Amino acid sequence: MEDGEEVVMMDSDEERVAEMDGEYEMTAEEAKKMLTESWASTMEEKGEFEGEGRSGPHPVRLAACGSPPCGNGSLSSCSPKVGREIVIDTSAGLPTKRGRGSVKDNIPGKKVKRCVGGADGVSITTNPELLEHYSVADQESLDEIPELGFDVTEHIELPSNLTRQQEDEMMGLGAAESMEQVEEEMETDENKQQEVSPMETVSVSQSSVSRNESKIIPGFGIVEYVTHEHPFAKYQGTFDEELPDCTIERLERKESLSRVQRFRDISLGRRVEIVGGDVETLKLDQSNETLYAFDYPNDYSVMYSVVKVRSAGAYLTPVKLEVVAGERVDLHSVLLTKDTVDTLSGKTFNPFSLYRGDLIIVETLTPRKKYTGEPLPTSWDYVGDPEEQTYWEVGNAQQVRRIIKKGRWALAIDEERKGRAFRTGDDVKFLVQDVTQVATFPRKSLSVKREILWDYVAVDVVVPVLQPGRFCRTFKPTYSQEAEVVAKVQQHNNVWCLQPTILQVYELKEEVRATLNNAKSWFMEGGKPTKEQFEQLAELTRFGVITSLAMSSFKFDPRSYKAEVTGVEELTRYCILTVLIGNPPSQNISSARWQKGTAVVISFRNHIDASATVLSSVASEVGLSVRVKIVRKGEVPQNITAELPVTIIIRHRKQDQMSNLRRAVGKLTPPPCTEKSHAMLVLADVHGGRMEPAEPLTIESFSFTIGSFTPTKEQSEVFYLLRTPDWRGAIIECGPGVGKTTAVTAAIIHNVECRGGSGSGLAVGTGSTNASVSAMIRSLRARDIRQSVRFVRLVTASNLMKLDSMHHSQNDFPHLWVSVFRKYVMDNDSVRLEGQPEMLGCAARHLCARQEFSARNLKSAWLREQTTRQYRTDPPEQSVMQLLFNIFDPHLILGTSDSIRAFFSSNSYLATLRETVEYLWIDESSQLGRSQLVPICYTFPTARVVMVGDSKQLPPYREQSYPDRLNALKNGPLFANLVAEKVLPILKLSRVYRCPTQIVELFSGLFYGGKLVAHKQPQTCQPFQSLGLPSGHPVLVVDTRSGDTVEGTSRVNDVELELAVKFVKEFQIKNPRKSIGVLGFYAAQVARVAQRLPSGITVATLDGSQGNEYDLVLLLTTLAPAFLNNKFISDRYRLNVALSRPKEALVIFANLKSANTDPLWAKVLDSVPKSLVFQRGDSPLFSLPSQ
C-alpha cells in the first residue's frame, strides 16, 4: 500500500478477517463495525455474553494518525485526532487463515464482564466461583495470588473438582504445558513472521527478513508496518527451563522474541485514521470492575513495569531487555496516563492508583502531544531523565494482577540509629513479615501517630513479583555473543530495585506486640510446653530470618558485565584473578554489591563457566577492580597469564530469596514434645520455660589418654559430662584459644572407644560456618590415631565444588560413599559369589550408574547382570545414603547447621534417624543465632544439646541498620544471654594455649575478669626481633597521625594502608613461613589493602576473622576522629576478637590522639611499653617515601 492510498473494505467481500490470535473470525462488515462502534454494543447485539463460552473483544480506544514523525513515508505519527472519516477498501481481498480453535471444557459458564485470552488464543468464560477473588477498583487490598510454593502465602481458591488443565485454563494459562509443548510453541512463535497471520495483509518483499504487513488492532485501527528480524535473533536457543507455578512469573516467561519484535515493528507503523474516537462513543464506564490479565491479549503486546508515578502519569520500563535491545531508546520509558484505556475492564486507567513494580501489558503506543511530528529519539541521553524525555504515551493496555499481603507484622527501620529522626516527606522504610525486600511508605501519606512507628505495627503491602532487566527465555548466546549483547544493552540495563509499597499502617493488638518485644518469655515458667507455643516460636523465628534477608536483598546485582582480567595469581590449590569491570553508561557499579564473599560466575571464551568468590572490590571513576578466587583451578584457561588482558563475562550467581529462606530454616514444623524430647525442652527453657539458674552438674573427672594426648582436667570434664545422668542441655564456655575443639573431639573419641566402637545412637557435630566444621575434622584427624571414630560430613556435591579446597576432606559425603562402596564391592566380589547379597548388588549398581566403576571389572556374573537393570525405572532397593550408613555405620555426622538440617529433612532415610541422634554438639555457639538453633533442635528433638563457645566474642552477624528488636528475634544474642542467666549448666575452659602471656593478661583483665590463664611462658618476640625491633613484648603500636576518608558507610585511610603494606612486605622477606593476618575494622580499608598484598596473606574484617589465628596480626583501626562514643570501633566484643587472634605478635596502627579518647582503647595502649610505641617517621620501617 502506497502512502496516502485509500483502503476500501467492501461489504460484499466474502473474505473473513480474523480477530487477535485467531480466536474469532469476523466478516468484513463486522470488522468495519468494530472500528466504528463501541465493543459493548457490538457484542450485546450478537448475544456474545450469554454463556457461549467466549468473552467479547476488548474495550477499544479509537484514535487517528497524523503526519509521519520522521518525514518518512513508512512511519506515521499516532497522536489522537478524531472526527476524520476514512474509507476502507478490501477489494483486492484479504488472505485469511483459520485460528487454532477453542478448548472445550466442562466448567459452567455465566454472564460475566471479563475477557481472558488463553495461551493458545482461547477465550473462555470465567467460573463464578472464581470471580469473588478479583478485586474492584476500591478494594484492591483484597488481591492475593499464589507464590512459588512457600507455605505462608495465600492462594486463589479454585473449585475442588478441577483438573490441572482446567485450573490453568481458568487462570488464563491454557492447558498445562509439557516441555515439548513449550518448545513447539517457541518454534511456532519464531516462525510466525514467515506465515500469513489471520489478521494480516502480507506483501512479501525480496528479503526473507523484512516484509510489508498490516494489522487490524481493535480500538486503534489498521496499522501498516514493515517486519524486521530482531537483532538478537541469532542469540536464541532451546528453552529448557520448566515454567514456574506462579502465574505472573509464568506469564513473563512466555514473552517470546517474536512477540517483542512485533511490538517494536508496530510501534513504527503507519496507522490509518478511524471514525468515532471520542470517549462517549467508546461507552467506557469508570465504574466497571478492575479486572486483571493472566495472559497476553494478542501477539504484539509486551510487559512493562511501573517505575515511578508523577503528576503526568505512570512511567513504565520494559521487563525484557530485548524491547530496547541497545537501539530503540524510545521504548525504554513510556507514559501511562488517565487517557490510557484498560481494554480488559472497559475504562480508562487511573495512573495514580498504580504502584512501583505493578506490571502492565502494553498493547499500543502513541506519541505524546508535545512530540507530534518530531523524530524518534536516538540519543542515549534520553534514558537519563524519563520525566523530561519520554516520547510515547500508552494507548491501550491491561494490568497484571498484583500481590498484596494484608495484616503483616512490620517494624520501621529506626532512622534515629543514624543520628536523625524521620523528617516530613521522608519515605518510611519497613521490614515486613513474609516480604523479602525493604518496603517503603511515603511519610506524607502516613495517618498514624509518630510514636506508633517506634514499635511493631501491622501493614498491608504491595509486593512486586518481577524486576525489569530480564532476557527472553530462549536467550542462549555463546561466550562471544554474550559479550556482544552485554555491550549493546549496557546503556539501558539499570539495576532496578522496585521495592514493595506500604498501603496502610495500623496498630497491632497489644498481646501480639508484647510477644514480639519479649523474645525471652515465649514459654511459661515451669509449665509444660505446648504445640502452639512451638509453632509460635517457629513463626517468630521465620519473621526474623525473612526481615534479615530483606536487609541484604539490595546487594544482589542482576546484570552481566563484560570485563577484563588484568592479573593472575596461580597457587597450588586455587587461582586468584584481578578483574576490571568498566562502569556501564546506565548506572555505575556499586562496590556494596560486590563485597567479600559474594558468589560470582565467570565465563571464559572456552565456554567454561567458573565459580568464584569475591575477595575484595575497590570502586573508581572508571569502574570496579575486583579480586576473585576461583576454587577449581582447572576451570581457568591454561595460557591465560600469557594472554593478559583477557575479556570475560562476570555476573553474580543467581539468587532466590525464598529459596534462601527455605535453605535457612526449612518449613520449621515443630515435632511432638515429650519427656524424652531433650532438645525441644532446651528450647522451652531458653525462651522463658526456666527463669531460675540451672543447678550445676556434679561431674567426676579423671584423666585419660588418647594416643599421645592427655586432656587437662577441664577438658576431661567434657567427656564425663556425657556419662552424667539427668541433663538435657549444657554450655561449655571458653575463652579464645583454650582448645575447645580439642576438648570436644577428645570426648567424642573416648566415648566411642569406651563403648567398644559401637553405641546406642549417633552424635552430630555442627557449627554456623564451614571453617568451624573443618576445624573439628582436623582435630579428629590429629587426635584419633586409631581411627576409632567413623564420621561423615554431609555436604552436597554442588556446594562442595564452591568451597575452598582447604575445607575438603576424604570424609565428605560425595567422596566417602564412592570410596566405601568401591572397597565393599572389591572386597566381596568373586567368581564363586554365594547367594545374591542385596547390599552388594545395590553398591555395584550405584557405582556403575554414576560411572564410578566399570561393570567389566566385576568378577561375579550375577553382579554384572545386576548392573544391566534400568537404574531409573528399577532403582536399587537401598538408596546411596541408606547403603552408606548400613555399610559404613558412622558414629558421628558433621556439617554446617543449614546443611545437616536440609539433609535430614529432604532425605527419606535420614529422616528415620532423627530421633536416634544422642548428642548434638554446636561449636562456635556465640555465632549461632535463634534462626539456626530452632531448626536444628526441631530436626533432632530427642538429642542432648551441648553448646560450645565464647560469650565475650562477637554475636551473629547483622546488617548495618538492622533494628535491634528484629535482631533479637533472629539472633539474640542468644548464647550470651544463656551464659549470663545460667539457664543451662555451664562448664568452663580457661587455659589459653594460643596467645603470648602478655596478650592473655591484657584481654583476660579487660573482658574475662582476670579468670583466664596463659599456657605459654613469657619469651622473646621472634617476629619483632627479626625486624630489628624491641622484642621484649608481643604488642607494638604505630601512631599513624593521619586522617581518614568516608566511603559510603565505611572509611579508608591512605597513610595507614601504605604503612601496613610496607610492614607486611618487610616481614614476609624475613619470615616467609609465618602466617600473617591483616585485620581491619572497616571493610573499605580492608578491600584496598587486599588489592595491594599477595594472596598468601589473609586480609579480612574483624567480623570475618573470628575463630582464626595467625602468627602475626596487623590491626588497622583506620578511624581519624575521636574513638569516644563510636560504638563500632569501641565495641568490646569486636576488640576482644582483635586482641585474641595472634599466636606470636600484634601490631596496632592507630591515630593515638583519637584512640586515647576512649577509656577501653586507652587501657589497651597503656599496656604497651613506650619502647614499642612508634611515631610515623621514627624509623625507615615506619616512614613513607614522601617523608
Automatic annotation (TrEMBL):
Signal sequence interval, chain numbering: none
SUPFAM superfamilies: P-loop containing nucleoside triphosphate hydrolases
Biological source species: Caenorhabditis latens
Keywords assigned by UniProt, alphabetized: ATP-binding, Helicase, Hydrolase, Nucleotide-binding
Domain DNA2/NAM7 helicase-like C-terminal, residue spans: 974-1151
CDD domains linked: SF1_C_Upf1 (cd18808)
Location of the region described as Disordered in the Swiss-Prot/TrEMBL record: 1-20
Name the UniProt record assigns to this protein: DNA2/NAM7 helicase-like C-terminal domain-containing protein
One term of GO molecular function: hydrolase activity
UniProt xrefs under InterPro entries: Coronavir_polyprotein_1ab, DNA2/NAM7-like_C, P-loop_NTPase, SF1_C_Upf1
Alphabetical list of Pfam families matching this protein: AAA_12 (PF13087)
Highest taxon above the source species: Eukaryota
Cited Gene3D superfamilies: P-loop containing nucleotide triphosphate hydrolases
